[in-house]
Write a structure and sequence with these properties.
The complex is a heterotrimer of chains A (about 375), B (about 280) and C (about 250). Chain A has about 375 residues and is α+β, with helices and mostly antiparallel strands. Helices cover about 65% and strands about 5% of the residues of chain A. Chain A has two domains: about 90 residues, D-Maltodextrin-Binding Protein, domain 2 (3-Layer(aba) Sandwich); about 220 residues, MetI-like (MetI-like fold, Orthogonal Bundle), CATH 1.10.3720. In chain A, helix 7 crosses helix 13, helix 11 packs antiparallel against helix 12 and helix 13 runs antiparallel to helix 16. The model of chain A has no long low-confidence stretch (mean pLDDT about 85). Chain B has about 280 residues and is an all-alpha fold. Chain B has a single domain, classed as MetI-like (MetI-like fold). The chains are: A alpha+beta (about 375), B mainly alpha (about 280), C alpha/beta (about 250). Chains in contact: A-B, A-C, B-C. The interface between A and B is large, with 87 and 86 residues.
């Protein structure tokens, strides 16, 4: 009996042991489930369709091209946008579909954007582009993110991905020398009271909520950046990078310090016994020995910066355009946070945001696994 | 350059960097405290926001909401996390399976909080609507890796000799865990749990779509209601609204309350850790 | 001539009195062995000769220690320069995670020596001096971790030799090695004696008897007896020494 109870409880423990795995699988399942429909959704605004002349051989026009045609950036097309007021001057509502059919049949180069209820179905000379969906190429390589554009919303994530990378990489570029310097100070030099102040300070830095960092950045750093670099607005990628750098510091410092501390004492003593100074010992022995731990620290810092939402939402200005350092940018997390509340549930925009979530998930998972592989090398390396 | 001089310069740089980090921390904290302290009053803490754009009154509902979320998420995360850690550390300690579980825990911990928000929206919100329970589940899963990791560390500090001693007296595995391992790891486990509370209390991104409300006239009456929350309130007051300057006052006050809660949680954790470390002679 | 002169040395780890009034002289180009039960202070004494104990917090030293007639604990003494003069080989082989070549060149590089040919020659010379050259001459670029334990220890000796120290301290250099590697190290000590002054700590009395000219016996922080090795092992002055050597305790 008692055996059975023990066995039963062990099973419960084992089930709990699997919980993180299950959660990851669930996250994957739900993100992909919600985002999956995106590439089957029509590329044009909901409730509308595109028509061309039947003689036009085209079967598919990408969202980016639709936008260009309607902006008259591509020669040889005649864009036509449905205008109810104009039509109703001469025609009754029941005649709309017929009239639209005539227009399309008469104009060989037309691209017509029409509400589904007035669609000239089964009219000779009219071809409805039904297979016009959002395609992965447009999504991943598109340079514009305008989810509310008509006739075709633009879901190009390239500026968002590049924005995310720019902000986080600059942040890491700032945080790495700082963080490693502090890690060296902590692991090699600071003792007693100094350590008792520094260690908790770094823990506190890690404990400050990101929204507070965002607030601080908004109120303090944004005006400083604006004045220092003489910009029209201070909400730039660079501002975000500075705050993200501060936020990544605790991760980098803690992991790098642990790695340096794991350098065997024998190694340090051997170096000192050869007449090396403490500093020479640090950069010639301690750092090379713990280099994989230090790299893991940097990679983890990148992961932390890439996923951070509130700070970038609050201080980077959120302009979805190709990024540059002293300009407003928008990152993937900030886009999700800013737009999910407005996107109609289950719509194309909603789906697109979930695919963004998938992209972010894949990037951070990749980073996490990289960090794990790097730090594993620590224990079985020679050179 | 003489190797002595270069050592001196390098060490001075490191020392400065160390103090620079402390300086940054003091700057942020000082800034919030300096600007927020004047806003804090009995009314600010214990009354509802009123007036156009919530510029008057207080932040009581947001404080209550945050406490509800903390408690809810811990009910989700604590039992699961502690049991998971017991399983990996006591049952399958060095096997492939425990390595796999640890890897998955690390991976879950690396997932950005906004992705948890998306997941919470897709699963919990579609089950229960925007509600405290949806937010608590989302935050609970977010806190899970931290709970597991800290509990595991706590269990690892229990020397094997204690376990073996218990077995030698004829105790079963479960008895050993319950009577020997858990009691001696208890303070460290509690510390870890408190730290994960600190993390949860400040999270904003996961609650944006799962629970947080801009303004509620009534306090939540059940776990299926929406709630206001401090971090979200801070976000709202500092970024939207027509009167940013007046809103800023409320934002300073909210930031100070939020940071005070987080710091108190952190101090409690380190107090417990130190208190018990002394008792056990420390490591 | 005495290269090391220790006068009335006391050493404390916190409250623990680890060395009590130790005085001794070591002659140039001799091999001196320290024996005694573990915790007796022999390693502590060895490590104060190159101020390695400085690395341990909360330690205190009184008394005088002269090397080449200079007080190594004087206020303005240069610790790095001292350690360059007094090389050390540790209990366990501890090569750096670098190539064989770079391990040996390390001491030269940290002491500011840049000449490529000079370093090359010195590395070869040191590896020959440590009787390792023949085994590694074709794989100097390989990781030091590819060598066997005994080879690693000889590499550490070569590393110490490369900066041409006056004194070589050896802290139980063979305790982690197999018997064949041990005898290679002992042969090496015998040949190195012509150029260096060697001070070795060992827990192995036969080893002390085989390699040393002078032996010191430590117990509970005191230097019980310090005399010619042959005399110490055949006819010790003190009863405690006699007991230890004949295995009655320790």
């Amino acid at each position: 009996m008692r055996r059975a109870i023990e066995r039963g409880i062990e099973m419960i423990f084992a089930a709990s042991g699997m919980v993180t795995t299950v959660v990851i699988l669930l996250i994957v399942a739900f993100l992909f489930k919600e985002g999956f429909g995106l590439f089957k959704s029509p590329a044009v605004e909901k409730g509308y369709a595109l028509c061309v002349n039947a003689d036009n051989p085209v079967e598919f026009i990408s969202a980016a091209d639709i936008k260009k045609i309607f902006n008259e950036e591509i020669e040889g097309w005649v864009p036509y946008r449905f205008d109810g007021d104009e039509l109703s001057e001469k025609y009754e509502e029941e005649q709309f579909a017929g009239r639209l059919g005539e227009i399309i049949a008469e104009t060989p180069k037309i691209l017509a954007f029409i509400p589904e209820e007035y669609l000239p179905r089964n009219v000779k000379g009219v071809k409805i582009l039904s297979g016009n969906t959002v395609i992965p190429k447009d999504f991943f390589l598109g340079k514009e993110w305008i989810p509310t554009a008509t006739p075709a919303p633009q879901f190009g994530v390239l500026p968002l991905i590049l924005g995310t990378l720019l902000v986080s990489l600059v942040a890491i570029f700032i945080a790495t020398p700082l963080g490693i310097g502090v890690a060296i100070y902590l692991s090699e030099l600071a003792q007693g009271r100094v350590r008792d102040i520094l260690k908790p300070a770094i823990e506190l830095l890690a404990g400050i909520p990101s929204v507070v960092y965002g607030f601080f950045g908004l109120v303090v750093l944004v005006p400083i950046v604006q004045r220092t670099f003489n910009l029209s607005v201070g909400e730039t990628a660079f501002t975000g990078s500075i705050i993200l750098a501060i936020m990544a510091l605790p991760t980098i410092i803690t992991v790098a310090e642990d790695a340096m501390r794991s350098t065997p004492r024998a190694m340090r003593e051997a170096s000192l016994a050869l007449g090396a100074t403490h500093w020479q010992t640090i950069y010639k022995v301690v750092i090379p020995y713990s280099i994989s731990g230090i790299s893991a620290a940097i990679v983890l810092g990148i992961g932390r910066a890439i996923g951070e939402t509130m700070v970038v939402l609050m201080v980077t200005g959120n302009a979805a355009k190709m990024p540059s350092l002293f300009d407003a940018v928008r990152t993937i997390p900030a886009t999700i946070a800013a737009e999910l509340g407005e996107a109609p549930f289950g719509g194309v925009h909603y789906q697109a945001l979930f695919v963004l979530g998938c992209v972010l998930f894949v990037i951070t998972l990749f980073i996490s696994i990289t960090a794990e592989l790097i730090s594993k090398r620590q224990h079985n390396k020679g050179l | 350059m003489d190797k002595r001089t270069s050592q001196k310069i390098a060490f001075w740089i490191f020392r400065l960097l160390g103090w620079f980090v402390v300086g940054v921390l003091l700057w942020i904290l000082g800034f919030i405290v300096y600007n927020g302290i004047g806003v804090i009053s009995f009314e600010f803490i214990f009354s509802k926001p009123t007036g156009v754009g919530m510029l008057k009154g207080g932040i009581f509902p947001a404080i209550i909401g945050t406490f509800c979320l903390i408690i809810g998420s811990m009910i989700v995360a604590f039992p699961l996390g502690v049991m998971s850690a017991i399983y990996t550390n006591e049952y399958v300690r060095d096997g492939k399976f425990s390595k796999f579980i640890r890897m998955m825990t690390n991976n879950l911990g690396s997932i950005p909080s906004i992705v948890f928000g998306l997941f919470g929206m897709a699963l919990f919100v579609s089950l229960w609507g925007r509600s405290i329970i949806a937010g608590a589940f989302t935050l609970g899963l977010l806190a899970l890796p931290l709970v597991i990791r800290t509990t595991e560390e706590a269990l690892r500090t229990v020397p094997d000799s204690l376990r073996i001693g218990s077995y030698a007296l004829g105790a079963t595995k479960l008895q050993t865990i319950r009577r020997v391992v858990l009691p001696s790891a208890f303070p460290n486990i509690v510390t870890g749990l408190i730290l994960s509370i600190g993390r949860v209390s400040g999270e904003t991104a996961p609650i944006l779509f799962t629970v947080a409300a801009y303004f509620l006239a009534e306090l939540p009456s059940s776990i299926f209601d929406q709630a206001m929350a401090l971090p979200y309130h801070l976000y709202v007051m500092s970024t939207s609204g027509k009167n940013l300057v007046a809103g800023r006052e409320v934002a300073y006050g909210t930031a100070l309350v939020l940071i005070t809660i987080v710091l108190m949680i952190n101090f409690t954790a380190s107090f417990i850790r130190r208190h018990f470390a002394k008792k056990h002679g420390g490591h | 001539m005495n290269i090391i002169e220790a006068q009335d040395i006391n050493f404390y780890y916190g409250d623990f009195h680890a060395l009590k009034n130790v005085s001794l002289n070591v002659a140039k180009n001799s091999v001196t062995a320290f024996i005694g039960p573990s915790g007796c202070g022999k390693s502590t004494f060895l490590r104060l000769l190159n101020r390695m104990n400085d690395l341990i917090p909360d330690t205190k030293l009184t008394g005088k220690c002269l090397i080449n007639q200079e007080d190594i604990y004087a206020k303005k003494a240069d610790v790095d320069a001292l350690r360059k003069k007094v090389g050390m080989v540790f209990q366990k082989p501890n090569p750096f995670p670098k190539s064989i070549f770079e391990n040996v060149a390390y001491g030269l590089r940290v002491n500011g020596i840049k000449g490529k040919d000079f370093i090359q020659n010195r590395v070869e010379e040191s590896l020959k001096g440590a009787a390792l050259w023949e085994e590694v001459k074709d794989k100097l670029g390989r990781s030091a971790y590819d060598l066997s334990g005994g080879q690693q220890q000889r590499l550490c000796i070569a590393r110490a030799l490369a900066i041409k120290p006056d004194i070589l301290l050896m802290d139980e250099p063979a305790s982690a090695l197999d018997p064949i590697s041990t005898s290679k190290i002992e042969d090496l000590i015998y040949t190195l004696k012509t150029e260096y002054t060697i001070v070795i700590v060992t827990h192995n009395m036969q080893q002390a008897a085989r390699v040393s000219d002078t032996t010191g016996f430590f117990m509970l922080g005191e230097l019980i007896e310090f005399s010619d090795t042959k005399k110490m092992f055949l006819n010790p002055d003190k009863e405690q020494t006699q007991n230890y050597i004949t295995g009655r305790f320790g």
